[in-house]
What does this fold into?
Amino acid sequence: MGAHPKQEGALNFVLCENLVELEEWQFQIEKSPKNCKNLPTHILRIIVELLHSQQNRSAGGKHMPWSVRLQDEKGRPVLDRDVVFDGPLPVDEESYRLLCYVDPYGDTVFNNSQMKTFLLEWDRIKDELSTAQIDAWKQVREFAMQCGNEVHLYLKFIGD
It folds into this structure.
C-alpha cells in the first residue's frame, strides 16, 4: 500500500534530513569516538537498524516481521490470531525450495501439499533464531502442521 504523494514527499524529506544528520554524526564519531555518548536517540536507532540489516544480509537471511496466518480457501482466517514472526528467512537462497520464495513486500501463500517440504525447511532455520523468536517459530510450525493435516487450509505470510 503506497503512501499519499504528500506523505511520501514528507517521508523522503525526513529520511534525507536524517541521512544528513547521520553523516554529520559519522564525521564527529570518526574524529573522536567519545562523541558517541552524545548521539541523539533517533540517530542511535538508525545506526542499530543499519547494523542489524547488515548482519542479516551477511547471514544470508531477510529479517523483518511477517504476519503469518492460517486461512481457508476463501482467504478467511481460521484462527482469531496471526503470529508475528520476525526471524530471518532464507529469501532468495536456492537451497530452500519454498522459503526462498517468501516475498518480503507482498503476500506468500503455501498450500496443504507443500507442508511436508515447508516443515523440513522451517525446521532448518530454527538454529538461526534467538530465544525470543522461538515462540513465534513454534506457533508458525503448529499452523503448518494443521495446514498439512487438513484440506482447504493455507499458510499465508503477509509481508511489509
User: Anything to note?
Assistant: The longest strand covers residues 66-72. The helical segments are 5-31, 41-59, 115-125, 131-149. The mean pLDDT is 78.
